[in-house]
Design a protein that fits this description.
heterodimer, A: 348 residues, D-Maltodextrin-Binding Protein, domain 2, 2 domains, 17 helices, 11 strands, B: 275 residues, mainly alpha, MetI-like fold, 78% helix
Chain lengths: 348, 275
Protein backbone atom coordinates (compact mmCIF):
# COMPACT_ATOMS: atom_id res chain seq x y z
CA UNK A 1 0.00 0.00 0.00
CA UNK A 2 2.92 2.28 0.86
CA UNK A 3 4.59 1.49 -2.45
CA UNK A 4 1.69 2.43 -4.64
CA UNK A 5 1.31 5.66 -2.68
CA UNK A 6 4.99 6.49 -3.03
CA UNK A 7 4.80 5.71 -6.70
CA UNK A 8 1.84 8.02 -7.20
CA UNK A 9 3.73 10.75 -5.38
CA UNK A 10 6.79 10.25 -7.56
CA UNK A 11 4.68 10.38 -10.66
CA UNK A 12 3.07 13.58 -9.45
CA UNK A 13 6.47 14.97 -8.60
CA UNK A 14 7.78 14.25 -12.08
CA UNK A 15 4.70 15.82 -13.63
CA UNK A 16 5.09 18.83 -11.39
CA UNK A 17 8.72 19.20 -12.36
CA UNK A 18 7.95 19.04 -16.09
CA UNK A 19 5.13 21.54 -15.69
CA UNK A 20 7.44 23.75 -13.68
CA UNK A 21 9.99 23.85 -16.49
CA UNK A 22 7.25 24.81 -18.94
CA UNK A 23 6.15 27.57 -16.58
CA UNK A 24 9.59 29.18 -16.60
CA UNK A 25 8.82 30.99 -19.82
CA UNK A 26 5.76 32.72 -18.37
CA UNK A 27 6.51 36.26 -17.25
CA UNK A 28 6.14 36.16 -13.47
CA UNK A 29 6.98 39.35 -11.66
CA UNK A 30 6.92 38.29 -8.03
CA UNK A 31 8.00 35.15 -6.25
CA UNK A 32 6.58 34.27 -2.88
CA UNK A 33 8.37 31.81 -0.61
CA UNK A 34 6.13 29.32 1.17
CA UNK A 35 7.73 27.18 3.86
CA UNK A 36 6.23 23.77 4.59
CA UNK A 37 6.99 20.19 5.60
CA UNK A 38 8.42 19.19 2.22
CA UNK A 39 8.50 15.60 1.00
CA UNK A 40 5.69 13.91 -0.89
CA UNK A 41 3.11 16.27 0.53
CA UNK A 42 4.90 19.24 -1.07
CA UNK A 43 4.67 17.60 -4.48
CA UNK A 44 0.91 17.21 -4.17
CA UNK A 45 0.66 20.86 -3.10
CA UNK A 46 2.77 22.03 -6.05
CA UNK A 47 0.58 20.23 -8.53
CA UNK A 48 -2.79 21.18 -7.07
CA UNK A 49 -2.22 24.69 -5.69
CA UNK A 50 1.04 26.33 -6.69
CA UNK A 51 1.07 25.76 -10.43
CA UNK A 52 -2.52 26.77 -11.18
CA UNK A 53 -1.97 29.84 -8.99
CA UNK A 54 1.12 30.90 -10.96
CA UNK A 55 -0.71 30.36 -14.23
CA UNK A 56 -3.63 32.49 -13.08
CA UNK A 57 -1.84 35.36 -11.33
CA UNK A 58 1.70 35.35 -12.68
CA UNK A 59 2.96 35.12 -9.11
CA UNK A 60 5.55 32.40 -8.68
CA UNK A 61 5.64 30.19 -5.63
CA UNK A 62 8.86 28.79 -4.25
CA UNK A 63 8.43 26.01 -1.70
CA UNK A 64 11.00 25.58 1.07
CA UNK A 65 11.27 23.13 3.97
CA UNK A 66 11.32 22.20 6.79
CA UNK A 67 9.11 23.89 9.37
CA UNK A 68 11.48 25.37 11.94
CA UNK A 69 10.71 27.72 14.79
CA UNK A 70 14.37 28.64 15.45
CA UNK A 71 14.64 29.73 11.80
CA UNK A 72 11.53 31.87 12.05
CA UNK A 73 12.95 33.52 15.17
CA UNK A 74 16.28 34.20 13.44
CA UNK A 75 14.56 35.72 10.38
CA UNK A 76 12.23 38.00 12.30
CA UNK A 77 14.84 39.15 14.79
CA UNK A 78 17.48 39.86 12.17
CA UNK A 79 14.95 41.57 9.89
CA UNK A 80 16.08 39.35 7.01
CA UNK A 81 12.79 37.58 6.36
CA UNK A 82 13.10 35.02 3.60
CA UNK A 83 9.72 33.32 4.02
CA UNK A 84 6.47 34.98 3.01
CA UNK A 85 4.37 32.28 4.61
CA UNK A 86 5.18 29.35 6.85
CA UNK A 87 3.49 26.27 8.19
CA UNK A 88 3.28 26.07 12.00
CA UNK A 89 2.38 23.30 14.42
CA UNK A 90 0.08 23.95 17.38
CA UNK A 91 2.75 24.76 19.96
CA UNK A 92 4.85 26.57 17.31
CA UNK A 93 1.95 28.97 16.75
CA UNK A 94 1.64 29.71 20.46
CA UNK A 95 5.33 30.47 20.81
CA UNK A 96 5.45 32.55 17.64
CA UNK A 97 2.42 34.53 18.79
CA UNK A 98 3.79 35.06 22.29
CA UNK A 99 7.03 36.38 20.83
CA UNK A 100 5.32 38.61 18.28
CA UNK A 101 6.85 36.90 15.25
CA UNK A 102 3.65 36.90 13.18
CA UNK A 103 1.72 39.57 11.30
CA UNK A 104 -2.08 39.76 11.12
CA UNK A 105 -3.94 38.01 8.32
CA UNK A 106 -6.08 40.29 6.14
CA UNK A 107 -9.22 38.17 6.16
CA UNK A 108 -10.97 40.72 3.87
CA UNK A 109 -8.73 39.47 1.06
CA UNK A 110 -8.26 35.85 2.08
CA UNK A 111 -11.88 35.04 2.90
CA UNK A 112 -14.08 38.03 1.93
CA UNK A 113 -17.33 36.06 2.17
CA UNK A 114 -16.59 34.76 5.65
CA UNK A 115 -16.78 31.15 4.55
CA UNK A 116 -14.29 29.64 6.97
CA UNK A 117 -15.50 28.58 10.43
CA UNK A 118 -14.12 30.53 13.39
CA UNK A 119 -11.84 27.66 14.44
CA UNK A 120 -9.83 28.08 11.22
CA UNK A 121 -9.87 31.92 11.16
CA UNK A 122 -7.41 33.27 13.68
CA UNK A 123 -6.21 36.90 13.71
CA UNK A 124 -2.66 35.80 12.84
CA UNK A 125 -3.09 32.34 11.31
CA UNK A 126 -5.25 30.07 9.20
CA UNK A 127 -5.81 26.35 9.75
CA UNK A 128 -4.56 24.53 6.65
CA UNK A 129 -4.75 20.93 7.74
CA UNK A 130 -6.13 18.69 10.44
CA UNK A 131 -5.14 15.24 11.61
CA UNK A 132 -6.32 13.07 14.44
CA UNK A 133 -5.17 10.43 16.87
CA UNK A 134 -8.15 8.11 17.13
CA UNK A 135 -9.13 4.52 17.95
CA UNK A 136 -8.76 1.92 15.21
CA UNK A 137 -10.06 -1.61 15.72
CA UNK A 138 -10.35 -4.93 13.93
CA UNK A 139 -13.92 -5.29 12.67
CA UNK A 140 -13.58 -9.10 12.52
CA UNK A 141 -12.66 -9.45 16.20
CA UNK A 142 -16.01 -8.29 17.54
CA UNK A 143 -19.53 -9.61 16.86
CA UNK A 144 -21.57 -7.67 14.31
CA UNK A 145 -23.07 -4.49 15.72
CA UNK A 146 -20.66 -4.46 18.63
CA UNK A 147 -17.69 -2.17 18.18
CA UNK A 148 -15.77 0.19 20.47
CA UNK A 149 -16.95 3.77 20.06
CA UNK A 150 -14.87 5.78 22.51
CA UNK A 151 -12.18 5.61 25.19
CA UNK A 152 -14.58 4.25 27.80
CA UNK A 153 -15.06 1.25 25.47
CA UNK A 154 -11.30 1.09 24.89
CA UNK A 155 -10.85 0.76 28.67
CA UNK A 156 -13.73 -1.74 28.94
CA UNK A 157 -11.86 -5.04 28.61
CA UNK A 158 -14.86 -7.11 29.74
CA UNK A 159 -17.16 -6.13 26.91
CA UNK A 160 -14.41 -5.67 24.35
CA UNK A 161 -11.81 -8.31 25.23
CA UNK A 162 -8.38 -8.50 23.63
CA UNK A 163 -5.01 -6.81 23.81
CA UNK A 164 -4.66 -3.12 22.95
CA UNK A 165 -1.86 -0.75 22.08
CA UNK A 166 -1.25 2.93 22.78
CA UNK A 167 1.54 5.31 21.84
CA UNK A 168 4.62 5.33 24.05
CA UNK A 169 4.09 8.96 25.12
CA UNK A 170 2.06 10.76 27.77
CA UNK A 171 0.84 13.36 25.23
CA UNK A 172 -2.70 12.42 24.22
CA UNK A 173 -2.83 9.33 26.44
CA UNK A 174 -3.50 11.40 29.57
CA UNK A 175 -6.42 13.01 27.74
CA UNK A 176 -7.72 9.60 26.58
CA UNK A 177 -7.56 8.23 30.13
CA UNK A 178 -9.52 11.19 31.52
CA UNK A 179 -12.16 10.85 28.80
CA UNK A 180 -12.43 7.14 29.62
CA UNK A 181 -12.88 8.11 33.26
CA UNK A 182 -15.85 10.30 32.37
CA UNK A 183 -14.35 13.79 32.17
CA UNK A 184 -16.38 15.82 29.61
CA UNK A 185 -14.31 16.74 26.57
CA UNK A 186 -14.73 20.50 27.07
CA UNK A 187 -13.49 20.24 30.68
CA UNK A 188 -10.28 18.29 29.98
CA UNK A 189 -7.82 21.14 30.43
CA UNK A 190 -6.07 21.72 32.74
CA UNK A 191 -5.47 17.95 32.88
CA UNK A 192 -5.84 16.14 36.20
CA UNK A 193 -2.54 14.27 35.91
CA UNK A 194 -2.99 12.11 39.03
CA UNK A 195 -6.43 10.95 37.95
CA UNK A 196 -5.15 10.21 34.44
CA UNK A 197 -2.28 8.01 35.64
CA UNK A 198 -4.63 6.19 38.00
CA UNK A 199 -6.92 5.42 35.08
CA UNK A 200 -3.95 4.38 32.94
CA UNK A 201 -3.02 1.85 35.66
CA UNK A 202 -6.21 0.00 34.73
CA UNK A 203 -5.38 -0.41 31.04
CA UNK A 204 -1.66 -1.08 31.53
CA UNK A 205 -1.94 -4.91 31.93
CA UNK A 206 -3.93 -5.08 28.68
CA UNK A 207 -1.32 -3.26 26.61
CA UNK A 208 1.39 -5.77 25.65
CA UNK A 209 3.30 -3.18 23.63
CA UNK A 210 3.38 0.63 23.34
CA UNK A 211 3.92 1.82 19.77
CA UNK A 212 6.39 4.48 18.70
CA UNK A 213 5.83 4.78 14.92
CA UNK A 214 2.87 4.93 12.59
CA UNK A 215 4.07 1.85 10.72
CA UNK A 216 4.12 -0.09 13.96
CA UNK A 217 0.50 0.48 14.95
CA UNK A 218 -0.63 -0.58 11.48
CA UNK A 219 1.43 -3.78 11.75
CA UNK A 220 0.10 -4.63 15.23
CA UNK A 221 -3.45 -4.30 14.02
CA UNK A 222 -3.00 -6.27 10.80
CA UNK A 223 -1.04 -9.09 12.49
CA UNK A 224 -3.76 -9.49 15.09
CA UNK A 225 -1.40 -8.67 17.95
CA UNK A 226 -3.96 -6.19 19.21
CA UNK A 227 -7.69 -5.84 18.58
CA UNK A 228 -7.62 -2.06 18.94
CA UNK A 229 -5.07 0.71 19.19
CA UNK A 230 -4.69 4.46 19.01
CA UNK A 231 -3.66 5.46 15.46
CA UNK A 232 -2.96 8.45 13.23
CA UNK A 233 -6.02 8.61 11.02
CA UNK A 234 -4.06 8.98 7.76
CA UNK A 235 -2.54 5.52 8.19
CA UNK A 236 -5.87 3.70 8.27
CA UNK A 237 -7.62 5.17 5.20
CA UNK A 238 -5.38 3.30 2.70
CA UNK A 239 -6.00 0.02 4.57
CA UNK A 240 -9.74 0.50 4.29
CA UNK A 241 -9.38 1.16 0.58
CA UNK A 242 -7.63 -2.22 0.33
CA UNK A 243 -10.52 -3.88 2.10
CA UNK A 244 -8.69 -4.78 5.31
CA UNK A 245 -11.01 -5.47 8.30
CA UNK A 246 -10.21 -2.27 10.16
CA UNK A 247 -12.32 0.74 11.12
CA UNK A 248 -11.93 4.00 13.01
CA UNK A 249 -13.89 5.12 16.06
CA UNK A 250 -13.84 8.90 16.33
CA UNK A 251 -15.24 9.18 19.86
CA UNK A 252 -12.78 11.18 21.97
CA UNK A 253 -10.32 11.52 19.10
CA UNK A 254 -7.48 14.00 19.48
CA UNK A 255 -8.01 16.63 16.81
CA UNK A 256 -4.77 18.40 16.00
CA UNK A 257 -4.38 21.42 13.75
CA UNK A 258 -1.65 22.74 11.57
CA UNK A 259 -1.48 26.42 10.63
CA UNK A 260 -0.21 28.95 8.11
CA UNK A 261 1.16 32.25 9.36
CA UNK A 262 3.06 35.25 7.93
CA UNK A 263 6.39 36.06 9.58
CA UNK A 264 6.53 39.66 10.78
CA UNK A 265 8.36 41.61 8.08
CA UNK A 266 7.32 39.24 5.24
CA UNK A 267 7.86 41.12 1.97
CA UNK A 268 4.83 40.19 -0.13
CA UNK A 269 1.75 40.08 2.12
CA UNK A 270 -0.68 41.14 -0.63
CA UNK A 271 0.40 38.29 -2.91
CA UNK A 272 0.42 35.84 -0.01
CA UNK A 273 -3.17 36.69 0.95
CA UNK A 274 -4.20 35.98 -2.63
CA UNK A 275 -2.40 32.64 -2.48
CA UNK A 276 -4.01 31.78 0.86
CA UNK A 277 -7.43 32.41 -0.61
CA UNK A 278 -7.05 29.63 -3.20
CA UNK A 279 -6.75 27.22 -0.27
CA UNK A 280 -10.49 27.88 0.15
CA UNK A 281 -11.33 26.39 -3.26
CA UNK A 282 -13.32 23.25 -2.40
CA UNK A 283 -12.66 21.56 -5.78
CA UNK A 284 -8.89 21.80 -5.30
CA UNK A 285 -9.34 20.80 -1.67
CA UNK A 286 -11.19 17.66 -2.70
CA UNK A 287 -8.45 16.76 -5.16
CA UNK A 288 -5.87 17.21 -2.39
CA UNK A 289 -7.75 15.26 0.28
CA UNK A 290 -8.33 12.35 -2.09
CA UNK A 291 -4.57 11.88 -1.97
CA UNK A 292 -3.76 13.02 1.56
CA UNK A 293 -6.49 12.56 4.23
CA UNK A 294 -5.47 15.72 6.11
CA UNK A 295 -8.13 18.33 5.24
CA UNK A 296 -8.57 21.87 6.44
CA UNK A 297 -11.92 23.49 7.25
CA UNK A 298 -12.84 24.39 3.67
CA UNK A 299 -16.59 24.95 3.30
CA UNK A 300 -18.16 22.78 0.63
CA UNK A 301 -15.32 20.26 0.67
CA UNK A 302 -17.24 17.34 2.13
CA UNK A 303 -19.99 17.55 -0.49
CA UNK A 304 -17.44 17.11 -3.25
CA UNK A 305 -15.91 13.98 -1.78
CA UNK A 306 -16.85 10.36 -2.18
CA UNK A 307 -18.82 9.68 1.06
CA UNK A 308 -16.47 6.76 1.72
CA UNK A 309 -13.50 9.17 1.75
CA UNK A 310 -15.36 11.93 3.61
CA UNK A 311 -16.39 9.88 6.62
CA UNK A 312 -12.77 8.95 7.30
CA UNK A 313 -11.66 12.59 7.59
CA UNK A 314 -10.93 14.35 10.89
CA UNK A 315 -13.12 17.30 9.85
CA UNK A 316 -16.19 15.29 8.78
CA UNK A 317 -18.91 17.08 10.82
CA UNK A 318 -19.87 14.02 12.86
CA UNK A 319 -16.20 13.32 13.57
CA UNK A 320 -15.48 16.90 14.68
CA UNK A 321 -18.44 16.65 17.03
CA UNK A 322 -17.06 13.43 18.53
CA UNK A 323 -13.50 14.66 19.10
CA UNK A 324 -11.82 17.01 21.53
CA UNK A 325 -9.53 19.82 20.49
CA UNK A 326 -6.01 19.11 21.67
CA UNK A 327 -4.41 21.94 23.65
CA UNK A 328 -0.69 22.12 22.83
CA UNK A 329 -0.42 25.16 25.11
CA UNK A 330 -1.03 23.05 28.21
CA UNK A 331 1.69 20.60 27.20
CA UNK A 332 4.33 23.14 26.17
CA UNK A 333 5.91 23.59 29.62
CA UNK A 334 4.99 20.23 31.12
CA UNK A 335 6.01 17.79 28.43
CA UNK A 336 9.57 17.06 29.62
CA UNK A 337 8.64 16.37 33.24
CA UNK A 338 5.61 14.27 32.35
CA UNK A 339 7.61 12.21 29.84
CA UNK A 340 10.06 11.40 32.64
CA UNK A 341 7.19 10.31 34.86
CA UNK A 342 5.68 8.32 32.00
CA UNK A 343 8.90 6.33 31.51
CA UNK A 344 9.14 5.50 35.20
CA UNK A 345 5.48 4.47 35.20
CA UNK A 346 5.98 2.13 32.23
CA UNK A 347 8.98 0.40 33.82
CA UNK A 348 7.14 -0.42 37.06
CA UNK B 1 65.53 -1.76 14.33
CA UNK B 2 64.13 1.36 12.67
CA UNK B 3 62.88 -0.82 9.82
CA UNK B 4 61.00 -2.86 12.33
CA UNK B 5 59.43 0.30 13.77
CA UNK B 6 58.49 1.53 10.29
CA UNK B 7 56.97 -1.83 9.53
CA UNK B 8 54.90 -1.77 12.73
CA UNK B 9 53.63 1.72 12.02
CA UNK B 10 52.77 0.82 8.44
CA UNK B 11 50.87 -2.29 9.45
CA UNK B 12 48.93 -0.60 12.21
CA UNK B 13 48.25 2.68 10.41
CA UNK B 14 45.00 1.70 8.63
CA UNK B 15 43.50 0.36 11.84
CA UNK B 16 44.63 3.32 13.92
CA UNK B 17 43.33 5.85 11.41
CA UNK B 18 40.01 4.06 11.21
CA UNK B 19 39.62 3.87 14.99
CA UNK B 20 40.79 7.45 15.39
CA UNK B 21 38.32 8.92 12.93
CA UNK B 22 35.37 6.63 13.37
CA UNK B 23 35.57 5.88 17.08
CA UNK B 24 37.79 8.17 19.14
CA UNK B 25 36.82 11.40 17.40
CA UNK B 26 33.04 10.83 17.70
CA UNK B 27 33.60 9.54 21.23
CA UNK B 28 35.22 12.85 22.08
CA UNK B 29 32.11 14.58 20.73
CA UNK B 30 29.91 12.43 22.98
CA UNK B 31 32.08 13.29 25.96
CA UNK B 32 31.82 16.98 25.11
CA UNK B 33 28.02 16.78 24.75
CA UNK B 34 27.76 15.18 28.17
CA UNK B 35 29.73 17.92 29.93
CA UNK B 36 29.05 21.16 28.02
CA UNK B 37 25.59 22.64 27.53
CA UNK B 38 26.97 25.06 26.30
CA UNK B 39 29.11 25.94 29.35
CA UNK B 40 30.71 23.28 31.54
CA UNK B 41 28.11 21.49 33.64
CA UNK B 42 27.78 18.17 35.43
CA UNK B 43 23.97 18.41 35.40
CA UNK B 44 23.53 15.36 33.16
CA UNK B 45 25.76 13.22 35.38
CA UNK B 46 23.84 14.39 38.43
CA UNK B 47 20.62 13.47 36.63
CA UNK B 48 21.97 9.96 36.06
CA UNK B 49 22.43 9.38 39.79
CA UNK B 50 19.07 10.95 40.64
CA UNK B 51 17.04 9.29 37.87
CA UNK B 52 15.23 6.16 39.03
CA UNK B 53 14.51 5.29 35.38
CA UNK B 54 18.15 5.26 34.30
CA UNK B 55 19.25 3.23 37.34
CA UNK B 56 16.47 0.69 36.87
CA UNK B 57 17.22 0.35 33.16
CA UNK B 58 20.93 -0.14 33.90
CA UNK B 59 20.12 -2.85 36.44
CA UNK B 60 17.79 -4.64 34.02
CA UNK B 61 20.32 -4.38 31.19
CA UNK B 62 23.00 -6.10 33.29
CA UNK B 63 20.67 -8.81 34.57
CA UNK B 64 19.42 -9.56 31.06
CA UNK B 65 22.96 -9.66 29.64
CA UNK B 66 23.98 -12.02 32.42
CA UNK B 67 21.05 -14.44 32.05
CA UNK B 68 21.41 -14.49 28.26
CA UNK B 69 25.13 -15.26 28.67
CA UNK B 70 24.52 -18.09 31.14
CA UNK B 71 21.76 -19.59 28.98
CA UNK B 72 23.91 -19.36 25.85
CA UNK B 73 26.82 -21.11 27.57
CA UNK B 74 24.64 -23.82 29.12
CA UNK B 75 22.95 -24.63 25.82
CA UNK B 76 25.92 -23.93 23.56
CA UNK B 77 28.55 -25.98 25.41
CA UNK B 78 26.95 -29.43 24.83
CA UNK B 79 26.47 -28.59 21.14
CA UNK B 80 30.14 -27.60 20.86
CA UNK B 81 31.11 -30.83 22.62
CA UNK B 82 29.00 -32.87 20.23
CA UNK B 83 30.57 -31.06 17.27
CA UNK B 84 34.11 -31.65 18.54
CA UNK B 85 33.52 -35.35 19.05
CA UNK B 86 31.57 -36.13 15.86
CA UNK B 87 32.99 -37.41 12.57
CA UNK B 88 34.66 -34.79 10.35
CA UNK B 89 32.04 -35.05 7.56
CA UNK B 90 29.10 -34.67 9.88
CA UNK B 91 30.99 -31.87 11.62
CA UNK B 92 31.26 -29.77 8.45
CA UNK B 93 27.53 -30.00 7.87
CA UNK B 94 26.77 -29.11 11.48
CA UNK B 95 29.13 -26.12 11.47
CA UNK B 96 27.32 -24.74 8.42
CA UNK B 97 23.96 -25.30 10.08
CA UNK B 98 25.18 -23.20 13.00
CA UNK B 99 26.84 -20.51 10.91
CA UNK B 100 23.99 -20.02 8.45
CA UNK B 101 21.62 -18.39 10.95
CA UNK B 102 24.61 -16.60 12.47
CA UNK B 103 25.27 -14.89 9.14
CA UNK B 104 21.63 -13.87 8.78
CA UNK B 105 20.79 -10.30 9.75
CA UNK B 106 19.73 -9.78 13.37
CA UNK B 107 16.73 -7.80 12.16
CA UNK B 108 15.48 -10.72 10.06
CA UNK B 109 15.98 -13.19 12.88
CA UNK B 110 14.13 -10.86 15.25
CA UNK B 111 11.20 -10.52 12.84
CA UNK B 112 11.11 -14.28 12.42
CA UNK B 113 10.52 -14.58 16.15
CA UNK B 114 7.59 -12.18 15.80
CA UNK B 115 6.05 -14.56 13.26
CA UNK B 116 6.73 -17.59 15.46
CA UNK B 117 5.59 -16.12 18.79
CA UNK B 118 2.71 -13.87 17.66
CA UNK B 119 -0.86 -14.35 18.81
CA UNK B 120 -1.69 -15.75 15.40
CA UNK B 121 1.80 -17.23 15.05
CA UNK B 122 3.19 -20.75 14.81
CA UNK B 123 3.51 -21.64 18.51
CA UNK B 124 0.08 -20.32 19.44
CA UNK B 125 -1.57 -22.08 16.49
CA UNK B 126 0.01 -25.42 17.35
CA UNK B 127 -0.81 -25.11 21.06
CA UNK B 128 -4.43 -24.28 20.28
CA UNK B 129 -4.72 -27.03 17.66
CA UNK B 130 -3.49 -29.63 20.11
CA UNK B 131 -5.96 -28.30 22.67
CA UNK B 132 -3.27 -27.43 25.23
CA UNK B 133 -4.62 -23.88 25.49
CA UNK B 134 -8.05 -22.46 24.71
CA UNK B 135 -7.15 -18.99 23.47
CA UNK B 136 -3.91 -17.40 22.28
CA UNK B 137 -1.37 -16.80 25.01
CA UNK B 138 0.93 -13.79 25.19
CA UNK B 139 4.41 -14.86 24.09
CA UNK B 140 5.45 -11.88 22.02
CA UNK B 141 6.30 -8.63 23.89
CA UNK B 142 7.51 -10.57 26.94
CA UNK B 143 10.85 -11.18 28.64
CA UNK B 144 10.62 -14.77 27.41
CA UNK B 145 10.62 -13.61 23.78
CA UNK B 146 13.64 -11.37 24.38
CA UNK B 147 15.59 -14.19 26.06
CA UNK B 148 14.72 -16.75 23.37
CA UNK B 149 15.75 -14.47 20.52
CA UNK B 150 18.92 -13.17 22.15
CA UNK B 151 20.10 -16.69 23.05
CA UNK B 152 19.38 -17.84 19.50
CA UNK B 153 21.28 -14.88 18.09
CA UNK B 154 24.29 -15.13 20.42
CA UNK B 155 24.66 -18.90 21.02
CA UNK B 156 26.63 -19.54 17.78
CA UNK B 157 29.42 -17.32 19.15
CA UNK B 158 29.66 -19.48 22.28
CA UNK B 159 29.53 -22.68 20.21
CA UNK B 160 32.28 -21.59 17.84
CA UNK B 161 34.66 -20.34 20.55
CA UNK B 162 34.13 -23.45 22.71
CA UNK B 163 34.47 -25.73 19.71
CA UNK B 164 37.75 -24.18 18.59
CA UNK B 165 39.23 -24.79 22.07
CA UNK B 166 37.83 -28.32 22.30
CA UNK B 167 39.30 -29.61 19.04
CA UNK B 168 42.76 -28.58 20.26
CA UNK B 169 42.46 -30.76 23.37
CA UNK B 170 44.68 -33.81 23.02
CA UNK B 171 42.47 -36.92 22.97
CA UNK B 172 45.40 -38.82 24.45
CA UNK B 173 44.88 -36.99 27.74
CA UNK B 174 41.34 -38.34 28.05
CA UNK B 175 42.53 -41.82 27.16
CA UNK B 176 45.31 -41.55 29.74
CA UNK B 177 42.78 -40.59 32.41
CA UNK B 178 40.61 -43.54 31.47
CA UNK B 179 43.58 -45.98 31.61
CA UNK B 180 44.44 -44.62 35.01
CA UNK B 181 40.97 -45.64 36.23
CA UNK B 182 38.79 -42.56 35.76
CA UNK B 183 35.15 -43.11 34.81
CA UNK B 184 34.02 -41.30 31.59
CA UNK B 185 32.34 -38.71 33.82
CA UNK B 186 35.49 -38.18 35.87
CA UNK B 187 37.64 -37.92 32.77
CA UNK B 188 35.34 -35.24 31.42
CA UNK B 189 35.05 -33.28 34.67
CA UNK B 190 38.72 -33.43 35.67
CA UNK B 191 40.46 -33.29 32.30
CA UNK B 192 38.28 -32.16 29.41
CA UNK B 193 36.20 -29.48 31.14
CA UNK B 194 39.13 -27.55 32.69
CA UNK B 195 40.96 -27.64 29.37
CA UNK B 196 37.94 -26.26 27.53
CA UNK B 197 37.29 -23.40 29.97
CA UNK B 198 39.35 -20.77 28.11
CA UNK B 199 36.97 -21.18 25.16
CA UNK B 200 33.96 -20.87 27.45
CA UNK B 201 35.38 -17.69 28.99
CA UNK B 202 36.04 -16.07 25.61
CA UNK B 203 32.58 -17.01 24.33
CA UNK B 204 30.86 -15.81 27.50
CA UNK B 205 32.74 -12.48 27.42
CA UNK B 206 31.76 -11.82 23.80
CA UNK B 207 28.19 -12.86 24.50
CA UNK B 208 27.91 -10.61 27.56
CA UNK B 209 29.42 -7.57 25.89
CA UNK B 210 27.25 -7.92 22.79
CA UNK B 211 24.16 -8.40 25.01
CA UNK B 212 24.84 -5.15 26.84
CA UNK B 213 24.47 -3.19 23.61
CA UNK B 214 21.38 -4.98 22.24
CA UNK B 215 18.82 -2.61 20.85
CA UNK B 216 16.49 -3.83 18.13
CA UNK B 217 15.60 -7.24 19.60
CA UNK B 218 14.31 -5.95 22.98
CA UNK B 219 12.64 -3.02 21.21
CA UNK B 220 10.66 -5.29 18.87
CA UNK B 221 10.08 -8.39 21.01
CA UNK B 222 10.03 -7.04 24.56
CA UNK B 223 7.27 -5.53 26.64
CA UNK B 224 7.32 -2.23 28.50
CA UNK B 225 9.66 -3.63 31.18
CA UNK B 226 12.27 -4.96 28.74
CA UNK B 227 13.96 -1.65 28.14
CA UNK B 228 17.72 -1.79 27.63
CA UNK B 229 20.22 1.02 28.03
CA UNK B 230 20.42 1.40 24.22
CA UNK B 231 16.64 1.81 24.02
CA UNK B 232 16.76 4.51 26.67
CA UNK B 233 19.54 6.30 24.76
CA UNK B 234 17.40 6.20 21.63
CA UNK B 235 14.47 7.63 23.59
CA UNK B 236 16.54 10.52 24.94
CA UNK B 237 17.90 11.28 21.46
CA UNK B 238 14.59 11.17 19.58
CA UNK B 239 11.80 11.87 22.05
CA UNK B 240 13.07 14.17 24.78
CA UNK B 241 15.89 15.67 22.66
CA UNK B 242 18.09 15.54 25.76
CA UNK B 243 21.31 14.72 23.90
CA UNK B 244 23.46 15.59 26.86
CA UNK B 245 21.80 12.92 29.02
CA UNK B 246 21.88 10.46 26.10
CA UNK B 247 25.66 11.02 25.93
CA UNK B 248 26.02 10.28 29.63
CA UNK B 249 24.08 7.03 29.17
CA UNK B 250 26.27 6.10 26.19
CA UNK B 251 29.39 6.67 28.30
CA UNK B 252 27.94 4.45 31.03
CA UNK B 253 27.44 1.70 28.46
CA UNK B 254 31.00 2.06 27.21
CA UNK B 255 32.40 2.06 30.75
CA UNK B 256 30.38 -1.03 31.65
CA UNK B 257 31.72 -2.82 28.57
CA UNK B 258 35.31 -1.98 29.48
CA UNK B 259 34.81 -3.11 33.08
CA UNK B 260 33.22 -6.36 31.90
CA UNK B 261 36.14 -6.95 29.55
CA UNK B 262 38.63 -6.30 32.36
CA UNK B 263 36.81 -8.63 34.75
CA UNK B 264 36.76 -11.46 32.23
CA UNK B 265 40.50 -11.06 31.68
CA UNK B 266 41.11 -11.26 35.42
CA UNK B 267 38.85 -14.24 36.02
CA UNK B 268 39.34 -16.20 32.82
CA UNK B 269 41.70 -19.17 33.08
CA UNK B 270 44.83 -18.78 30.97
CA UNK B 271 45.46 -21.25 28.22
CA UNK B 272 47.78 -23.93 29.57
CA UNK B 273 50.00 -24.16 26.53
CA UNK B 274 50.84 -20.46 26.78
CA UNK B 275 51.39 -20.20 30.49
Amino acid sequence: MMNSFTFTRRLLGAAAFAAGLAGLSAQAQTTIVVNGSGGGLAQVITKIYEEPFTKETGIKVRATAPVSLPKLKAMVESGNVEWDLTELGGDDLLQARANGWLMPVDWKVVDPDNKLPAIARLPDAMVTATFSTVIAYRTDKFPAGKAPKNWADFWNVKEFPGPRSLQNSPVGNLEFALLADGVPKDKLYPLDVERAFKKLDQIKPHVPTWWTTGAQHVQLLLDGEVVMTSVWNGRISPLRKEGKPVALAWGGGQLQLSYWGLPKGAKHPAEVFKYMSIRLDPAKGAEFVNQVPYPGFIPGLMERLDPQVAQDLPTYPANVEAQFQFDPGWWAERRAALTERWNAWLLQ
Amino acid sequence: MSRKVARTILLLAPGLILIGFLFLFPLFGVLKLSLFNPGFTTASFEKLVASPVALLVMERTFILALTVTVLSVVTGYPIAYYLATSSPRWRTILVYLILLPFWTSILIRTYTWMVVLGREGLVNSVLQWTGLIDGPTQLLFTGLAVHLAMVQILMPIVIITCYSTMIEIDEGLIRAARTLGATPGQAFAKVFLPLSLPGVATGAAMCFILSLGFYITPALLGGRRNVMLSNLIDFEVHQTLNWSFASVLALVLLAATLVALGLFRLVAPRRRDQG
